[in-house]
């Protein structure tokens, strides 16, 4: 199976936002800091005030994180990533080719595959993935077929 697409900044940004949101250490840190703020706000007052403080603090931390990502990820140094890609899957390998490099991964080297609205991420390491936007697939059945194939190969 062969998939061709152009990876855009919004794809990269969406992947990073979801990836960070799914990281347990990030969640634990944000929840803990928001909880400390909530406890300090609710001492001697209504519990609803503490809950509201928690929601505001948690949301504000994620908003700041996303703004930080926006600034950090927007760089001309990403031209080797934000380019045209050709992904090919075969019985032996998962391959990603651009004008800058060609990467071949044997199936045991694929860590996991994540399906999210807007993209599929094939992780080649804990913090590295091949990001395939949903628009790269002709239709939903092709996307599902690709996911099923990759997951079957990585489970074997």
From TrEMBL:
<protein>
    <recommendedName>
        <fullName>YcxB-like protein</fullName>
    </recommendedName>
</protein>
<keyword id="KW-0472">Membrane</keyword>
<feature type="transmembrane region" description="Helical">
    <location>
        <begin position="51"/>
        <end position="71"/>
    </location>
</feature>
<keyword id="KW-0812">Transmembrane</keyword>
<keyword id="KW-1133">Transmembrane helix</keyword>
<feature type="transmembrane region" description="Helical">
    <location>
        <begin position="21"/>
        <end position="39"/>
    </location>
</feature>
């Amino acid at each position: 199976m062969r998939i061709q697409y152009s990876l855009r900044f919004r794809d990269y940004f969406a992947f990073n936002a979801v990836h960070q949101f799914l990281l347990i250490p990030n969640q634990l840190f944000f929840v803990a800091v928001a909880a400390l703020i909530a406890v300090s706000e609710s001492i001697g007052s209504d519990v609803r005030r503490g809950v509201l403080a928690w929601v505001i603090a948690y949301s504000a931390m994620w908003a700041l994180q996303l703004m930080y990502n926006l600034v950090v990820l927007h760089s001309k140094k990403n031209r080797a990533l934000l380019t045209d890609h050709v992904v090919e899957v075969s019985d032996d390998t998962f391959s990603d080719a651009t004008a800058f490099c060609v990467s071949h991964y044997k199936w045991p080297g694929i860590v996991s595959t994540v399906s999210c609205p807007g993209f599929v991420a094939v992780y080649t390491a804990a913090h590295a993935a091949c990001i395939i936007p949903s628009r790269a697939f002709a239709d939903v059945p092709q996307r599902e077929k690709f996911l099923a194939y990759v997951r079957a190969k990585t489970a074997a």
